[in-house]
What does this fold into?
Amino acid sequence: MTTSVTLERLSLRMMPSLVTPSAVTATHEQEHQMGNPTTRRPRRKRIVVAAIVAATGIGLGGTALADVEQGDIATQAHAEAVAPGTPCSVSARACVDLDTQRAWLLRDGKVTRGPVPIASGGAGQETPLGHSFRVYRKNKDHVSGEFTGPDGNPAPMPWSVFFADGGVAFHGGDRASASAGCVKLDTGQAEAFFNDLVEGDKVQVVRASDEQTARGGGAAAS
It folds into this structure.
């Protein structure tokens, strides 16, 4: 069972001997813009305590930390068969390949939609990698809590399907620009992902090249 480690849930004072400046990585809530926003609202900071994770074995549900992705979660995923045509495991309901900027919907290990083109996070705001994200919320009319558009209103994030810490979601948007961590889809595809995925569904976000290496050459997406 994975646990999100945030400032709200875990005081750094609990384990001061484990926390050093290099062990604390701050990431902002990654709800982001559609199109070309002009104004950022104040960012809400979340603290991921890598030292506590390493010492206690607490998992981050796919958060992009090397100790998680090289641990039991990744090992279990790589022990599963690969869903044909994707770099993901047969247990995934949605698959994202950051190498090729493509995504798939799956059911019972078979592709039901895709590959479809995506836009993932840009430099410094990369979409997190993970083998065991879970859909935890959906909102077809969601708007960003961080970014505003040219009209000064919160930037729209239609057909949002949230699956990772920090507000990372599939949603509709302009794929011509990188996201701030989310997975942007064309609006029609975002609606299809919204309608197909339900809370609890597994989402994997991977790099096909890394998966192929980890599986001994057997995870290339076609």
Summary: Residues 187-196 form the longest helix (10 residues). Residues 1-68 have pLDDT under 50 and may be disordered.
